[in-house]
């Protein structure tokens, strides 16, 4: 088993060499699905530390972008192992970072993990208008709508999206999960979502429960 604390620190330090060596070690093993999930969790914890370093002024926007690229590379390499650990058929998810928010690191991590869990993901990208999400739900008839946002103002867009799904008569046919830094149980209830998560692995389990 790789040292998860070392991985978390390496992600925080943006140390690709340490991360790549650990991933190669995991991928060299036959039954590696569970360990691959632990590696992802450790890297997510490292991303939290990256965010704290940014908030304190130690890191800058370029460091955040690079951290996202490093984490996406980790996810891409581990995807076969993560997929091997999930034999269940997934559902269909329409995913978006809501209008007014340009952050996509968390969304992309979640997308990689639900794709590894055999879900079909229609990723609409960032800063997505409410009408575009509603139109896509009408078009593809998904099981789940995933709304992501980091900024507090994103919560208004999430609520507007859920309201629009209601007005279009689509809300009862889909589950809505929201994710991002500002979400919690009270926010989830206020927005009218079915569930929330600030952890991608936990979010995947919620979605699997809905379609299982």
Automatic annotation (TrEMBL):
Residue ranges of every copy of the B12-binding domain listed in the record: 90-212
Domain (B12-binding N-terminal): residue spans on this chain: 1-90
Transmembrane annotation, as ranges: none
Keyword vocabulary terms for this entry: Cobalt, Metal-binding
InterPro entries attached to this UniProt entry: Cbl-bd_cap, Cobalamin-bd, Cobalamin-bd_sf, Met_Synthase/Corrinoid, Meth_synthase_dom
SUPFAM superfamilies attached to this UniProt entry: Cobalamin (vitamin B12)-binding domain, Methionine synthase domain
A Pfam family of this chain: B12-binding_2
Keyword Metal-binding among record annotations: yes
This protein's name: Cobalamin-binding protein
Organism, as annotated: Dehalobacter restrictus (strain DSM 9455 / PER-K23)
Classification of source organism: Bacteria, Bacillati, Bacillota, Clostridia, Eubacteriales
């Amino acid at each position: 088993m790789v040292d998860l604390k070392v991985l978390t620190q390496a992600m925080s330090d943006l140390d690709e060499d340490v991360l790549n060596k650990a991933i190669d070690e995991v991928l060299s093993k036959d039954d590696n699905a569970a360990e691959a999930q632990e590696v992802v969790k450790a890297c997510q914890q490292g991303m939290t530390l990256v965010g704290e370093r940014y908030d304190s002024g130690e890191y800058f926007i370029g460091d955040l972008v690079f951290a996202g690229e490093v984490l996406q590379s980790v996810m891409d390499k581990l995807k076969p192992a993560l997929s091997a650990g999930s034999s269940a058929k997934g559902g269909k998810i329409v995913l978006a970072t809501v209008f007014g928010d340009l952050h996509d690191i968390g969304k992309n991590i979640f997308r990689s993990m639900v794709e590894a869990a055999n879900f079909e993901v229609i990723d609409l990208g960032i800063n997505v208008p409410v009408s575009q999400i509603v139109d896509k739900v009408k078009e593809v008839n998904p099981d789940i709508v995933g709304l992501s946002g980091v900024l507090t103002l994103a919560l208004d867009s999430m609520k507007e999206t859920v309201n629009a799904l209601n007005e279009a008569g689509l809300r009862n046919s889909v589950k809505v999960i929201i994710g991002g830094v500002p979400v919690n149980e009270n926010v989830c209830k206020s927005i009218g979502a079915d569930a929330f998560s600030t952890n991608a692995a936990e979010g995947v389990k919620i979605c699997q429960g809905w379609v299982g």
